[in-house]
Amino acid sequence: MYRCMIFCICLLAGFSSQADIYKWTDQNGNTHFGEKRPFDKSISYKKLSIKAQRVNEAESEGRLKSIQQSADEIEKSNADRQAAIDKADLSAETKKRSHAECDNVRKSLSSLDFGGNRLYKDSDGNYSRMNEDDRNIKREQFNQFLNENCR
Question: Distance between CA atoms of 11 and 13, rounded to whole angstroms?
Answer without folding.
Answer: 5
